[in-house]
Design a protein that fits this description.
Layout (H helix, E strand, L loop, with lengths): L1 H12 L4 H20 L9 E2 L4 H8 L7 H7 L10 H13 L22 E4 L6 E2 L3 E7 L14 E8 L4 E4 L1 E4 L4 E7 L4 E11 L1 H13 L3 E9 L2 E8 L8 E3 L10 E3 L11 E7 L6 H4 L10 E5 L4 E5 L22 E4 L2 E4 L10 H8 L3 E6 L1 H13 L4 E3 L10 E5 L4 E7 L9 E2 L6 H6 L7 E5 L10 H21 L4 E5 L8 H7 L1 H14 L6 E3 L1 H6 L11 H15 L5
């Protein structure tokens, strides 16, 4: 309303300037044409130099209580009026929440950095009798490559307990005392011989470098093809671009999220056809810095036990926790569940296991299912069309891999759609009409008791400052709340991030540490609203299979089973 009032005031004050009004009408016509050609995704199109950033920042300095996280976004083209005071405050809280402890010296010699091969963990109170439901605590002190105990924390550890013969596993919670000592807490959730596994994902000295990379740079750039008549050119695009030449401004009208491309010579901005990954920024680190990212030495390396790595857990003399209905709106505890016989047992929901395709079909009968996100969400779509024989994928002429995709079961009135989550997704060329923001897609959904939405968004934001991700999730949350307001019976499920393998180059662009930070933000932003969670993070970390960005089918099956458990919850 404020934006509309502002535009009306400008027109009123300038009504005597006929020429100006004519120019405005022509501009509106251009925007209308772009909206018409771009489907539901709408953009501002600008074919000139934007206002210099230095002037922009001076104008914004008058805004009171302008937080640093917002200031960084405004420098990239976001507009201050699109943020509510609550959102600005929330962003400050979130950036504070994910602050990571740094080494006391910014230039630590490699030999003084964390060495997992010299570090050992010990199980505390290992002589006591443990029962299902008890807490198990592990302690370790980090040592450096010279064999000296470290005096500060900040290392990123991952830990789990498991029983291989039972295909059972769960994750632990790491507590950093920031003096070289770490404690890891586990909840013992099944009887038998339970082993402890701990690994160093990144030393604190490496994390300091990852923080600098995230905060100071965009590590991937994109390209778009522009075509008019027989002229076709490619141009570099990104969330932020240096103003070395004229820019096309494709800022989304609804969300206010910016996107820029360098304007190709002799082509208008409106001639943009597609979006694709361009190139990764190379040579991010010097030789000394690369030492902190050595596969087989200090990246995702196991830490061995000081003595033994297992305990015996007896069945609990107490009763089970009882029936837990699968309803949205619950926070995610940790651990949120565990594997037993390769099946995920949730701590927040009486999960079902859809081993027979007919049961999944019965669950989704008469349902419209919308899957939005990255390739890990596309795995759900692919699993469902393989698992449910009645589903038929409809060829609508889109990319065979990246979609959008549509599958229907006519006999059971089931429709499942998959859409990629939009820029800045890293993909081969895809037409821009098929890259719609999740927030805008949600606004187009009517909703109702037979409407199910599942979404995830995280991996493709790991190469950008975290502020961009916070703003994207805030806009998605706005649309979720609007959807639930008009259709409270609509089910919305959030799939969290997942762990992956980390060769050196992957660490610099898509490290588990980046994903972990984004996952924390995701959980916090969607906390307290009526959505359900599928904890893909713990479901990939707790499993015995090697970490992969695209988990194997057994893990995807458990994720989809959790999703369907919310779609068709058991009643007590």
């Amino acid at each position: 309303m404020k934006e509309q009032h502002s535009k009306t005031s400008i027109l009123t004050r300038s009504s005597f300037q006929c020429g100006f009004i004519l120019l405005m009408l022509m501009g509106l016509l251009v925007i209308f044409q772009q909206m018409k050609s771009g489907g539901n995704e709408t953009y501002f199109v600008r074919e000139k130099y934007p206002k210099p950033k230095s002037d922009h920042r001076r104008d914004l300095s008058k805004e009171k209580n302008l937080s640093m996280w917002t200031d960084r976004l405004l420098q990239c083209g976001y507009q201050i009026h699109t943020f509510t005071p609550e959102e600005r405050s929330e962003g400050t809280v979130l950036t504070k929440m994910i602050e990571w402890p740094k080494p006391p010296n910014p230039a630590v010699h490699f030999m003084k950095s964390s060495d997992p091969s010299r570090t050992r963990f010990v199980i505390l109170n290992s002589a006591k009798t443990f029962y299902v439901g008890d807490q198990l605590q592990v302690m370790l002190r980090m040592y450096d490559f010279e064999g000296n105990p470290k005096q500060y924390g900040g290392d990123y550890l991952q830990a789990r307990i498991h029983t291989p013969e039972l295909k059972a596993g769960s994750v632990g919670t790491v507590i950093d005392h920031q003096n070289g000592f770490y404690y890891i807490n586990f909840t013992l959730l099944w009887p038998g011989k339970v082993q402890v596994s701990v690994s160093l994902v990144h030393p604190s000295e490496g994390i300091q470098i990852l923080q600098q990379l995230r905060n100071e740079s965009q590590r991937v750039y994109f390209r778009s093809t522009f075509k008019l008549g027989k002229i076709m050119k490619s141009s570099v695009c990104n969330l932020c671009l240096k103003q070395t030449k004229p820019l096309c401004d494709f800022t989304d009208i609804k969300t206010g999220e910016p996107w820029f491309c360098y304007k190709p010579e002799k082509l208008p901005c409106s001639s943009r056809l597609n979006h694709a990954t361009g190139y990764y920024v190379r040579n991010l680190l010097n030789g000394k810095e690369l030492k902190y990212f050595q596969s087989g030495k200090n990246v995702k390396m196991p830490i061995l036990p000081n003595n033994h790595d297992d305990v015996i857990v007896e069945p609990s003399p107490h009763k089970d926790q009882g029936f837990i209905e699968c309803v949205p709106g619950k926070p995610l505890p940790s651990p949120s569940g565990f594997y037993y016989q390769d099946k995920w047992v949730s701590q927040t929901c009486c999960a079902q296991h859809f081993d027979i395709s007919e049961n999944a079909t019965n669950c989704l009968r008469w349902k419209n299912v919308y899957l939005h996100g990255d390739s890990t969400m596309r795995q759900w779509f692919e699993y469902l069309i393989r698992f449910m024989p009645g589903l038929r994928k409809i060829d609508v002429g889109n990319s065979l891999r990246y979609g959008p995709h549509l599958a229907v079961d006519v006999d059971n009135t089931i429709k499942i759609e998959y859409f990629a989550h939009g820029i800045p997704i890293r993909i081969p060329p895809l037409i821009i009409q098929n890259l719609l923001f999740i927030a805008n897609k949600l606004d187009d959904i009517k909703g109702g008791k037979n409407t199910v939405v599942a979404l995830t968004i995280w991996s493709h934001f790991s190469t950008f400052p975290v502020e961009h991700y916070i703003r994207r999730l805030q806009n998605i949350r706005r649309s979720i709340l609007r959807l639930l307001d008009r259709s409270p019976e609509t089910l919305i499920v959030i799939k969290t991030a997942n762990v992956q393998a980390l060769p050196r180059n992957v660490s610099l662009y898509s490290s588990d540490w980046f994903s972990y930070q984004l996952d924390l933000v995701m959980r916090r932003i969607f906390q307290g609203i009526n959505v359900a969670f599928v904890d893909a993070w713990e479901m990939t970390l707790a499993h015995y299979l090697p970490h992969e960005i695209h988990p194997k089918q057994i893990i995807v099956k458990n994720q989809v089973d959790m999703f369907l458990s919310y779609v068709c919850p058991l009643k007590k």
